[in-house]
# Entry
Amino acid sequence: MRLFMKEHGLHAFIVPSTDPHMSEYPPAYYESRVWLSGFTGSAGTLVITLSKAGLWTDSRYFIQAANELEGSEIALFKDRLPETPSFTDWLISELKPGEAVGIDANVYAAKDAMVLKERIGVAGINLVSDYDPLSAIWENRPSIPKSKIRIFPVEFSGESTASKIARIRESIRQAKADSILISTLDTIAWTFNIRGADVAYNPVAIAYAFISLDRAILFIEYFMRNFCIFTACKCEPLLVLLLNEYTLDELPSGLLTVRAFSLG
# Structure
């Protein structure tokens, strides 16, 4: 990790516990903090500088973290105690003006990144969000899961996907907006009445959704999955696109027809 940092002009790197969907329990592919530190609790932030490393976690994990970090160079910072500095304050005390802190923007909440940038910027420290070092240094990294997806019947969900999307569109209108981009996996599972097994002990599938006043799009790796999702949507026009195949401004025009794929 430090070799990567040196090669890219970084003097510190922050590794959160989240994935691109801000999940509390991410798939193994995104357990970067676990892989780097050995700490397996669900919440914690690892900060690595060129000479030191620290892990911030809350009181649920003080004992576990102390045990799992024992023998490593990583210092345990007991978060939310009066005497414990935030990792931002610690970075400001460790780094010099003109030095740079790295984050992977794919797994860092935008609001948190803006607050961090402002705080360290006052001290003359730069924030760099261009790199995912784990993609370069993590050998034998677990693959992104593509579990089978199943429909959650309306008799159990209590409401059809079409009805839910109609209510979402009403909220969009009330907010005087045009659309909503949904990234949280439980919200996507609820909206489209689907269930998956991409995250251990969580019935979700890795996906993104885009809902406007006239189209609903589910971005998911459907080619690798054994399902036909459209039976849940009934008359709601739903387009399913391969995740990472399109950006929103590249979407083919006029795509409002249902495309059904059954691969099994």
Summary: DSSP finds nine helices and twelve strands in the chain. The chain has a mean pLDDT of 84. The first strand starts at residue 12 and ends at 15. Residues 96 and 179 are 43 Å apart (CA to CA).
